[in-house]
Design goal:
Order of helices and strands: HHEHEHEEEHEHEEHEHEHHHHEHHEEH
Largest sheet: 11 strands, mixed
Structural class: alpha/beta
Number of helices: 15
Bound molecules: glutamine
Oligomer: single chain
């Protein structure tokens, strides 16, 4: 087995026992990226010098006998909407093609103080808008299981890189499903943490009230390990909560006897793929075998979840993207004679179609005369959905759903049909509208051999239950075979 094929928790032990060095491990990954990334396009920027320097530093500290974090010396890559000081951050957009971040995001500070090794920045849909990574200005990422298919999105680069051994760990961002859906398409684990548990400082805002950074990894243990590193209050982010977080990794428990798992079957009418549903029901049988009790639950107003998500997220996006005007950041159009034209040309040429669509939709739903009938209604719908789901957690510990109604689709299948693309998020947006944590774990393959994901959602700040359920499932089901590349 090659070094890039191991899980982080295994590598952590190998590093501790001095069986390997971080330098060897990092070199093995950089070689893998060099060999594979032309094919997969998971990375926008690779930082070999920075990575090797950090690997050497981690090795040196270990040699000195310092007490190190679990992820010390482990290679990690972050989605290209997370700031890393002095490294390019494009957000998958022409607008920021040559933009260099002047500071570190809080999560990156945490990685650095844990002596993790940052290998690079991962491909994504422009400003995290999309479900396929086809909206990246730098070209789409390919799915390692079938390179004619999408890796999912918007954190497609994260999921593909983790799956293909181009990184051991990754951090993505999830506003409506962007960590979980690509994780399910690429057969890896992805967690959207509770809103407010991970600092958003240094994450380029898409829809600020939903955005959350989270881990993309090869197994549940690794996800818990990485979540423990990045969570916690941050004075730079007023939406990060002030509370004492307990460690999840050391408390992982595969015995879920007595755990109640709610299944909102009425929601599944949106899933027309019988093989995806079959795999979901097989997963429930496994959870039952682990000792969980499956109960049927009714969630109200669920049909409004997707429209509410797209109205609210576009409204927030239209405001957040206003800062890209050719003055403050990145790209500025040439040949404009006056400032108004300069803004216009910059935004016309700098943004891709999907961003423009969201800006227009968002501006429309916020405009006088439409605010009450769209934005306000969407907020009301989101509140109703939130209270209905919150109530369910008095009778159930975890809610199970498929992560996505489908598996990885072919390039171009939905690219020109925005509504079809938006429907990819029917099962993931609940966690964002409610702020609750949700994980996607690999749960098998569809009839064409493409990965399927199981989504487990918990009450706010109940990551431990979500991890435990996923861990129990994974302990019985195992990890899916990775594609030969
Ligand atoms: N696919 C969703 C969207 O396009 C989710 C994006 C995300 O989570 N960043 O809005």
């Amino acid at each position: 087995m090659e070094l890039y094929e191991y899980n982080a928790f295994e590598l952590c032990e190998m590093l501790e026992n001095r069986k390997i060095s971080s330098l060897e491990l990092t070199t093995s990954l950089l070689d893998r990226i060099e060999m594979l990334d032309k094919k997969l396009n998971a990375y926008i920027t690779v930082c070999p010098e920075k990575a090797l320097e950090q690997a050497r530093a981690a090795d040196k500290r270990r040699m000195k006998g310092e007490c190190l974090s679990r992820i010390a010396g482990i290679p990690i890559a972050v989605k290209d909407n997370i700031s890393v000081k002095d490294v390019k951050m494009t957000c998958g957009s022409k607008m920021l093609e040559n933009y260099i971040s002047p500071y570190n995001a809080t999560v990156v500070e945490k990685l650095e103080s844990s002596n993790a090794v940052l290998v690079g920045k991962l491909n994504m849909d422009e400003f995290a808008m999309g479900s396929s990574t086809e909206n990246s200005y730098f070209g789409a990422t390919r799915n390692p299981y079938d390179t004619n298919r999408v890796a999912g999105g918007s954190s497609g680069g994260c999921a593909a890189a983790v799956c293909a051994g181009e990184t051991i760990l990754a951090l993505g961002s999830d506003t409506g499903g962007s960590i979980r859906q690509p994780a399910s398409f690429c057969g890896v684990v992805g967690l959207k943490p509770t809103y407010g548990s991970v600092s958003r400082y240094g994450l380029t805002a898409f829809a600020s009230s939903f955005d959350q950074i989270g881990p993309v990894c090869r197994c549940v243990k690794d996800a818990a390990m990485l979540f423990d590193v990045i969570k916690g209050h941050d004075m730079h982010d007023s939406t990060s909560v002030k509370m004492q977080f307990s460690e999840t990794f050391s408390r992982l428990e595969s015995n879920i006897g007595g755990m109640k798992i709610g299944v909102p079957e009425a929601v599944f009418k949106d899933c027309t793929r019988s093989d995806v549903l079959d795999s979901f029901y097989d997963s429930l049988k496994i959870l039952e075998k682990c000792g969980a009790k499956i109960i049927s639950i009714n969630m109200n107003n669920t049909e409004f979840a997707l429209p509410a998500y797209y109205v609210i997220s576009s409204a927030e996006a239209s405001s957040n993207l206003a800062r890209f005007d050719g003055v403050r950041y990145g790209y500025r159009a040439e040949n404009a004679d006056d400032p108004d034209l300069m803004y216009k040309y910059t935004r016309s040429k700098g943004f891709g179609d999907e961003c423009k669509r969201r800006i227009m939709l968002g501006t429309f739903v916020l405009s006088a005369g439409y605010y009450d009938s769209y934005y306000k209604k969407a907020i009301k719908a989101a509140d109703l959905i939130k209270s209905s789901i919150k109530e369910k957690f008095s009778e159930t510990d975890v809610i199970a759903m498929p992560t996505s109604p489908e598996t990885a689709f072919r390039f171009g299948d939905k690219h020109n049909d925005p509504l079809a693309m938006y429907k990819s998020d029917v099962f993931t947006v609940f966690a964002n509208l409610t702020g609750m944590p949700a994980i996607s774990v690999p749960s098998g393959f569809d009839k064409s051999g493409l990965p399927v994901g199981l989504q487990l959602m918990g009450d706010s700040f109940c990551e431990q239950k979500v991890f435990d359920t996923a861990f129990a499932f994974e302990s019985v089901f195992g990890s899916p075979a990775k594609p030969k590349l």
